[in-house]
Amino acid sequence: MYVGRFVVVGPEGGAYRVSSRSFPNREITARDEALTVGPTADAPETDNPYVSYNCLRVVETPTGETAAFGNGSHVDPIAEKLELGYPARDALAESLLALDYEKDDYDTPRIAATIGGDGEALIGTVRKDALVVETVDEPTLVATYEKNAPESFEFEADSADAAASEAYDLAFEHAVCAAGVARTDDGFETAIENGD
Ligand SMILES: NC(=O)c1ncn([C@@H]2O[C@H](COP(=O)(O)O)[C@@H](O)[C@H]2O)c1NC=O
């Protein structure tokens, strides 16, 4: 099954995976406190505005560190609102609604998740027909296509490395790269899986 991009999130950690039929020549790199999706050196040029972006950021908020991740440029305003002290629900809802679904051939939804240092985890999506933001207490997945409403999902990873690998290896088609995040006693750790 092809579900496109997806996030998985629970109180202990989560992951974001890029799956792509159209733009497979991409990778995640770590730069300036963010994990960024961008083209590989051999990727054909594109003017598609939706394929390069910060996919994961860990920010300091008034109540401690929080991780924010998702499939596009909305990750930045979510992270910035969290830094300003917005509740995660509001940061997600306002940023998703402001940018709305992508105006591409598929009306691709925006998806996102947050995890607070206290384990509060939220997941959200904005589609052409809905805005959904909810708190989760077990691993939960939302994807751009097919699985486009949050659903409980078996996800075993207990470290950032394991989360990135598990997300990358899931049987959904056209895996490109994945980012993992895990809550530890010393804050959040992150990891990247770019495949071979
Ligand atoms: N975030 C991404 O990495 C991303 N990759 C592709 N898209 C959008 O989704 C469309 C379909 O891409 P694909 O056939 O690879 O699923 C693309 O034309 C592009 O507008 C993306 N936008 C949202 O998921």
TrEMBL record:
Pathway: Purine metabolism; IMP biosynthesis via de novo pathway; IMP from 5-formamido-1-(5-phospho-D-ribosyl)imidazole-4-carboxamide: step 1/1. It catalyses: IMP + H2O = 5-formamido-1-(5-phospho-D-ribosyl)imidazole-4-carboxamide. Its EC number is 3.5.4.10. GO terms for molecular function: IMP cyclohydrolase activity. InterPro entries: IMP_cyclohydrolase, IMP_cyclohydrolase-like, IMP_cyclohydrolase-like_sf. Keywords: Hydrolase, Purine biosynthesis. It is an enzyme of class 3 (hydrolase). Catalyzes the cyclization of 5-formylamidoimidazole-4-carboxamide ribonucleotide to IMP. Belongs to the archaeal IMP cyclohydrolase family. This is IMP cyclohydrolase.
